[in-house]
Design goal:
It contains six helices and no strands. The chain is mainly α. The protein is elongated. 30% of the residues are buried. The mean pLDDT is 88.
Length: 187
């Protein structure tokens, strides 16, 4: 690669890091503060509870904290790939939450969280480039982080899927029980 190509690559990586990290700050401020048309902590907490992630407010705060920390680490390039991997984990859970909306964001689907996850994993794989503030993580610590983060994200996704299945089962049982009850006539 020529020096010009190296500079262009590093500038593109910086732009991608700024974009992804900036959007994670916006995403977190929606959850925590209700900014940018977000639900705020109460609304986000209720949504998390509905999806089987209880206690909802604490889970929403943890998700927002992960987005803030991941965004900051991604923007600065410090401790790479911890930031992009944190974002990928949080967005994987968000994609699982949006799975019933289908593929497109206009219907509440997985499009946006999958795009964020893809960009985060791409940045984790390529590295931050030379325009960064701090060093990358050692390989062994990175591997440990990938395993631990993947396990946590997987557990949260499994919890959401199981909670949704249980809620559907309860609704079906209630509907069946209501259908079996004889109608009471008002005289």
């Amino acid at each position: 690669m020529t020096d010009t190509e190296d500079i262009m690559r590093d500038a593109a990586l910086l732009g991608a890091r700024l974009l992804l990290g900036g959007y994670m700050f916006i995403h977190a401020s929606q959850k925590l503060l209700g900014k940018f048309h977000g639900p705020g902590l109460e609304g986000a907490g209720a949504m998390f509870e509905k999806n089987g992630l209880a206690p909802g407010k604490q889970m929403a705060a943890a998700a927002a904290s992960t987005e803030i920390a991941g965004g900051l680490l991604t923007i600065t390039g410090i401790a790479n790939p911890a930031g992009p991997l944190a974002i990928a984990g949080a967005m994987s859970v968000a994609a699982a939450h949006n799975r019933e909306g289908g593929l497109m964001a206009v219907r509440g689907g997985v499009e946006l969280p999958v795009a964020y996850t893809t960009l985060a994993l791409t940045l984790a794989a390529t590295g931050p480039g030379k325009f960064r503030i701090g060093p990358s993580l050692p390989r062994k610590l990175t591997a440990l982080g990938v395993i631990a983060g993947g396990a946590v994200a997987g557990a949260l996704i499994a919890r959401m899927v199981a909670a949704k299945a249980a809620a559907v089962f309860e609704e079906e049982e209630a509907a069946a029980a209501a259908a079996d009850e004889p109608a009471v006539a008002d005289d």
